[in-house]
Amino acid sequence: MHAPWKHGSGACPSPIAAPTCTNSSLMATQAFFTTHGLHRNTFATNKLLAFCALSDTGSLSYASLIFIQIHEPNTFTYNTLIRAYSLSPHPHSALDYFHLMLNSHTLRPDQHTFPFVLIACANASWACSGKQVHNWVFKNGLAASDGHVQTALIRHNN
Fold first, then answer.
1. Which PANTHER family does the record cross-reference, listed alphabetically (predicted)?
2. CB 14: neighbour CB atoms within 10 A?
């Protein structure tokens, strides 16, 4: 099994340690994942997705393409894209992924989800959505149990 990032190929050495990735090297890494069945490994695919979504040298649009190919996205998968889009020029996309997560019926948002959903609401100037998220957090008991969520709710109300 030859990894495309070995022997000075210029491709990404790993989704974590890739300071100078290009789109072609991301595609080479994804092709390697697909060719060797790693695209079915949620942990490995989440690492690639997180690199693409959150790294300065990654590509958020490419991360979205990777998301589509993940057979069983988990909460980490959704949270990664929600976080990345909430801080991007397209915060409405974070809310789209949040709604997809809610509609999956198998996953529930967690304490890492809501701070970035509320940031997305604020950055998109969607006060109404922010209030709905705020109510959902209280209704589902997350406000009392986690400091990150409490802090995000306080920031959202100011």
1. PENTACOTRIPEPTIDE-REPEAT REGION OF PRORP DOMAIN-CONTAINING PROTEIN (PTHR47926:SF537), PENTATRICOPEPTIDE REPEAT-CONTAINING PROTEIN (PTHR47926)
2. 13
Q: Contact at 8 Å (CB) between 44 and 58?
A: no
Read off the tokens for 11: 């491709």
pLDDT digits (tens, 9 = 90+) for 28-80: 877 887 787 777 788 888 998 999 999 888 889 989 989 998 888 999 999 99
pTM, 2 dp: 0.72
Under 8 Å between Cβ of 94 and 86 = yes
| Geometric angle at alpha carbon 78, from 72 and 83, rounded to 5° | 160
User: What CA–CA distances, in Å, run from 85 to 59, 64, 112, 124, 135?
Assistant: 11, 10, 14, 11, 22
SS3 assignment, position 128? helix
